[in-house]
Amino acid sequence: MKARLPEGFGGKAQNMNSMIKQAQKMQEEMEKAQEEIKQKEYTTTVGGGAVEIMMTGDKVLKSIKLKPEIVDPEDIEMLEDLIVSGVNEVLRTVEAETEQKMNEISGGINIPGLL
């Protein structure tokens, strides 16, 4: 005896399989994009170019370059503020690009657990 599926049931199962495949493809694309971002280096300058900060996409600080004229022993606080500002700016750049790429892949939807 052959079992029969209720009418329309087969189509729902196929639709579910299609959705799973799309989600898997989306996850693969996101993983690839994240890897590309990790390999990229981001640079920003602050203080009119007096401080340059370079960071990788996986948020590893690579370098801080200072123009000699901003190193004033009498005003260390300004230098500290510029460094903090530069690090925060480059972090925002990494985050913004990561979010943009993920939104492009996912169409702007947030799927918990996908990444």
From TrEMBL:
The UniProt entry, under InterPro entries, shows: YbaB-like_sf, YbaB/EbfC
**Coiled-coil stretches, from where to where?**
13-43
The domain of life is Bacteria
Family matches, as SUPFAM superfamilies: YbaB-like
**GO CC annotation:** bacterial nucleoid; cytosol
Keyword rRNA-binding on this protein?
no
- MF terms (GO), sorted A to Z: DNA binding
Alphabetized, the UniProt keywords read: Coiled coil, Cytoplasm, DNA-binding
Q: Does the keyword Cytoplasm apply?
A: yes
Q: What is its main location?
A: cytoplasm
User: Where would you find this protein in the cell?
Assistant: Cytoplasm, Nucleoid
- Pfam families in alphabetical order: YbaB_DNA_bd (PF02575)
The task this protein performs is described as: Binds to DNA and alters its conformation. May be involved in regulation of gene expression, nucleoid organization and DNA protection.
> So what family is this one in?
Belongs to the YbaB/EbfC family.
Give the quaternary structure.
Homodimer.
- Tell me what this protein is called: Nucleoid-associated protein H8710_07275
- Lineage summary: Bacteria, Bacillati, Bacillota, Clostridia, Eubacteriales
